[in-house]
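Example record

One chain of 982 residues, shown exactly as stored in the release files.
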Amino acid sequence: MNDPSVPGPPAVDPLIALRPWEAPEVTSWGRLPLNAVGRRSGGLPLDGDWRFQLLSAPDAPVGGAWTTAQVPGAWTLQGTSDLPQYTNVAMPFAEFPPHSPAANPTGVYEREVDVPAHWAGRRIVLQVGAAESVLLVHVDGRPAGISKDSHLAAEFDLTALVRPGARATVRLTVVKWSDASHLEDQDQWWHGGITRSVLLYATDPLHLADVTVRAAYSGELRVDCLVRDTGGALPEGWYLTGDLDGQPLAQDAEFDRANAEDERVSDFLGEARLLAGVADVRTWNAETPELYGLTVRLHRRDGTVADTSRHRIGFRDVEVVGRDLLVNGERVFIRGVNRHDFHPLTGRTVSYDDMRADLVLLKRFGFNAVRTAHYPNDPALYDLADELGLYVVDEADIESHDHAHEIADDPRYLNAFVDRVSRMVLRDKNHPSVIVWSLGNESDYGANHDAAAGWLRRHDPTRPLQYEGAAKLGWADPDVASDIACPMYASLEACLAHALSGKQTKPLIQCEYSHAMGNSNGTLADHWAAIEATPGLQGGFIWEFWDHGILQCVSDGRPAGRGGAGLYDNGVAAPGHRWAYGGDFGESIHDGAFIADGVVFPDRTPKPAMYEHREISAPLRIECFRHEGIVLGNHQHFRGLDWLAGEWHLDLADGTTLTAPAVLPNLCPGETAAVPLPFEVPRDGGEAWLTLRVTVAEDQPWAPRGTVVCVPQVRLRGPAVAEVPPVEGRIEVDGEGLLVHPLLTAAPTLSLWRAPTDNDELGGMARRWRSWGLDTLVRKAVSVSEDSGRVTVEAEYAGTTGVVRHRQVLTPVEGGVRVEEEAELPEAFDDVARVGTVFETVAGLDLLDWFGQGPWESYPDRSAGAPVGHHSVPVEELFTPYLRPQESGGRHGVRRFTLSAPDAGGLAVTLDEPRQISVTHYRAEDLASAGHHDELVPRPGCVVHIDAAHRGLGTASCGPDTSPSYLVAPGVHRWSWTLRAL
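Predicted structure tokens for this chain:
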């Protein structure tokens, strides 16, 4: 197995003797520099099953039985005793930097590799795509190198350690905890393993060491190349050629320093430049991501090709001018999201198809930017962002959240900061999608950041850089290492005040805002209305894309792993399984469901908040209705409307819906135009709503023809006032004054409580509500009176600190009963969840039809994405399965609804004005007492809420609460509704 001509393994392993997991000054040993040459063809993939042992510590002896582990993949999801652990801020162990715990899981991966015989005389390189957190490489027992940085590839030159045509044993030892772990304290699951692909490839000894592409908006192209020869001095006469979409590039003879007498050239390094000017260049931006094919060839003196590098490049400029971030000279809104590499079965190992599905979904819902939180993502993501059209803030793998202040200025970590930032830039610099570099996340601010920023500005002056830790010292401070003011979770009021202060010097683009934990993202439309109306405000990145639930087998508490494929659908795990969050794997240190804070569920099913974002980012909008016409506006930055199609819908209150094709005007970005009304609106009949259903006209790379892009809407006529006269009859109530009705199993009573959302719990509201006793109100002091068939019931609902007076008047009307209600809240109840009515129905009423906003879930401060219309949804589909059960399934602005059985029997409710309702099979206490959905037992009937007022959602789990206008205040609340049997 070993090459007899090469000395055997050393008696003492120098990699283990170095103890790199305890040495912050050691970022690598034997590792090659990263570069942007790109993937070479003809490599030998080493993915698949490897022999595997999990040791208790990195210096523990390897022995005993081998099992197998799949590469790429985390061992924490492959049946080992070391399970995933989730923390947000706190490190998962007590040791201070740079120390790591003695109990330190260490994975040993081993396999044989047959080195191709035709690689004789070539340079042979091992590439390990990512390993968490320290990687030690051995070949046939001999050390090859060390690498840290869990989210960038490590490459090692194995030429001297392997023999082409022979078999070699490759051992990859991965140490889970190290000094580097203190720099990777990100808000995500802790794993261990090799999480990206492993590859063995070969090049000529004379090879391209790096390629730097500068493709400007003007069409000017510059390609700078570094050339090395591992055999020694560079041979004479080498040269470069290149072509752009088949057209040859010119070599800049003045810059060719391959054999010149120049201090920048060593015996082992040559530099050369290729130039081109592209007439009528097709420029790149997120709306029209035009790409060109670039090929660079390195030739020997005789003209044969020694190495080739291929790229897809885009011509574009990025700059900060004053307080504007410009792409190709245009101020663009950043409609972004933070994204981790994540999959519910494989953790941080994500396939190309999965990454493409991520970005396709984002494009379909109006996002145009991604922040790679909080590390460089898989390389394929950047290729996809280039192709599909997404702006990328590329973030270095630096977060020292728990020990940020100590590490920011610690000289022992200086090399690591510069190393991580520089390697990210060296890998990703040729991607047009990357418009901003980020120095990391939540690591305070110190000299180590400034050192990394200095290297970055010198190497790549073509892009701005940002860092929230620097920007938070002063949004307008010109001396900090951030060209963009990029706070996180700043209030809208603070952002507006800064933009209007006259002191703003930089673009304000929040790196995190609108925390998407559970039922959240309230006031998103309010934020964007202010952003679009205020110079100096330019957008931000929602936290975050994913709910990081790991599919778990309930019976044994272990991750389902790759065997769980197909065991979830529409955000719901199959019976016997659930979405696990912090603490579900027995961790003593964890941060619970804070990992479930995305705009999609773990299976990529969109949450209702996605529809809100789709509408507020709509490229085509109805600006207003005037003079019997509709004014349309193009809200894109670079693109016309020719890629869109439309269809008009007119929804009338009587249940009528009319449709007609829409002819969209030819509008340039920013232009508006009036178009005639497509229908003659009837003179009477109550409310009339006009909706433009906008779809993709022809197939796009991210959407087939017919995909809905947005559904802007305008009200043409308000509601008609219709009085329902009383009739003679008798209202039946029980001895407590509660309505008795054959379709109800629980009579209508007052409700002030909702199952707390994550925002309610973490924002402190739920604690106040419980302290007031709103979850356990006691109905007492009931008085009942009757006058001419009308029943008046007065009662008190007592909490622990206050009393609510409730009055209910029941009047017989044709076919049913009108319920008029009044509730007086004491001043102490200055912010309650809701004021309204709750009742329960008999079983079998399983279909909800309504006229109001929908069809998806909506709330008072998250309703812009739910158009008014006629909607019909089965009751079981109204409920939204947020990972931790909580208030969900609400529909805002409902005018009337029916609950019906398959035989068309059921009940109908008409509301006095548009109200918030919810219909599910769960009481609030059912949801509030459950930690996961497998603990819920649906009730046979429907639990119906009709709210006179419902509190907004906000984002207080990590960020601002809802706006004061969406709070439910004390005082008198009045509402009425009519109940009829179908």
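Notes: Residues 258-267 have pLDDT under 50 and may be disordered.
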